[in-house]
From TrEMBL:
Family indicated by similarity: Belongs to the class-I pyridoxal-phosphate-dependent aminotransferase family.
Domain of life: Eukaryota
Species lineage: Eukaryota, Sar, Stramenopiles, Ochrophyta, Eustigmatophyceae
Protein's name according to its UniProt entry: Aminotransferase class I/classII large domain-containing protein
A GO term, aspect molecular function: pyridoxal phosphate binding
Alphabetically ordered keywords of this record: Aminotransferase, Pyridoxal phosphate, Transferase
Length: 413
């Protein structure tokens, strides 16, 4: 008798790990559906919705626009508005003076979130077997997508400030050169998820220059730009014409579910990126593209969200300090605090599970973000603080009570 087992999956996906944050989110939603009040500190999803002007524009377009396919590269008014935003927000050195950063709308490609941009960029820029570097503590999907595409992913250990600078990258490039391997690409996010660490403009410039000099394609994930707490930020576009910059409407613009992002790519990659997007998804969601044009004119509303994150960050830092958790990452930008809990806890993964199941507080263990070979994932926890201040405060209250009696603690006193 033939047993119907269904088609088997490809060898490409059989070793693809899940994105743990999404699994924890799924379990948190199950608990909520069962009637529990869950505090969500696991996912980087702003509590606020899209800005009001975006919603108004979307309503209008729903009524008046047939919402057909668009140009694969993205509608021109949106690409022009994105280009204008670079001139409004960033500067570039030209002949000894600082001038607004000019970006050609022809180099902008609108994508289905930054996630869509990663896939297109990796496919356009890298071949199977190419060595691509990532930070040892970083966003897990870089590693997972690159591995699925057959790239050779190499972790660059972050320095004691949780950063990868030209210094850390060059050490890895030299080590690999001894094995006759050449680094083809680098992808980093600054501000970083999960650490919040930010490269200073000078560090970013040095990194861009190093990559240019060594023929390394630098992909700068700038999704957390405009969410920072006193540090200055720069775009890699200010320092090199060879970088690929990726950004999204998900974080600062508070539009996660609209699935919209963009990239700015060198002219040499644009035709390939366009052919890929034409074949892969035809175009990014039309309604989102039309409405997102308004997002750039909502700075007052969006900066209020950032002010709330700053309050939440202070609440969280104070609460962790109160528990004796002092080993935390810099948290200069984005909306995450990454804490090393190994002095106090046997295992961060078990703790995160127990905290969710028993106290209904969802946080993410480091296993998502760390090089699997390092073992650091079981020592670290990431707290996301883009929710409402009341939710963060309530979560810290529950954490304190849970912590006091938790049996998995090493140094209970
Ligand atoms: C560093 C980083 N890049 C990219 C993404 C993906 O965002 P999206 O596809 O919604 O633009 C995330 C999501 O959390 C992230 O943290």
């Amino acid at each position: 008798m033939v047993v119907a087992e269904g088609p088997s999956e490809s060898s490409r996906t059989s070793s693809l790990p899940s994105f743990k944050v999404m699994e924890i989110l799924g379990r948190a939603i199950d608990l909520e559906n069962a009637g529990h009040k869950v505090c969500h500190l696991q996912v980087g999803q702003p509590k606020s919705g899209a800005p009001k002007k975006v919603l108004k524009s979307a309503e209008l377009h729903l009524r008046t626009n047939r919402l057909g396919y668009t140009n694969s590269q993205g509608i021109e008014p949106l690409r022009k508005r994105i280009a204008r935003n670079y001139a409004e927000r960033y500067l570039k050195q030209e002949g000894g003076t600082e001038v607004p950063l000019q970006v050609n709308p022809d180099n902008i490609i609108v994508t289905t979130g930054s996630s869509g941009a990663f896939l297109l960029t990796f496919l356009a820029a890298f071949n199977v077997g190419d060595v691509v570097c990532i930070a040892s503590s970083g966003y897990p999907c870089y590693r997972n997508i690159l591995n699925t595409l057959g790239c050779d992913v190499v972790s660059v250990p972050v320095n004691d400030q949780f950063k990868v600078t030209a210094v850390e990258l060059s050490a890895v490039v030299k080590r690999l050169a001894r094995q006759r391997k050449k680094v083809k690409g680098l992808i980093l996010s600054s501000p970083s998820n999960p650490t919040g660490a930010m490269l200073s403009p000078a560090e970013l410039k040095a990194l861009c220059e190093y990559c240019d000099k060594n023929g390394i394609t630098f992909i700068s994930d700038e999704i957390y730009h405009h969410i920072s707490y006193g540090q200055s930020e720069a775009s890699a576009l200010s320092f090199s014409d060879n970088v690929v910059v990726i950004n999204s409407f998900s974080k600062y613009y508070s539009m996660t579910g609209w699935r919209l992002g963009w990239m700015v790519a060198p002219a040499s990659l644009v035709p390939a990126l366009n052919r890929l997007s034409q074949n892969f998804y035809l175009n990014a969601p039309t309604l989102s593209q039309l409405a997102a044009i308004e997002a750039f004119d909502c700075r007052e509303e969006l900066d209020k969200h950032v002010a709330t994150y700053a309050v939440n960050r202070a609440v969280l830092l104070a609460a962790l300090k109160d528990l004796g958790l002092q080993k935390v990452s810099p948290a200069d930008g984005a909306f995450y605090i990454y804490a090393d809990v190994s002095d106090d806890l046997e295992d961060a993964v078990t703790f995160a599970r127990d905290l969710l199941e028993q106290a209904h507080v969802a946080v993410t263990p480091g296993i998502d973000f760390e090089d699997p070979a390092s073992g650091l994932g079981r020592k670290r926890l990431r707290f996301s603080y883009c929710g409402a201040t009341e939710e963060i405060t309530e979560a810290m209250k529950r954490l304190k009570t849970f912590w006091a009696t938790y049996p998995g603690r090493k140094n209970k006193n």
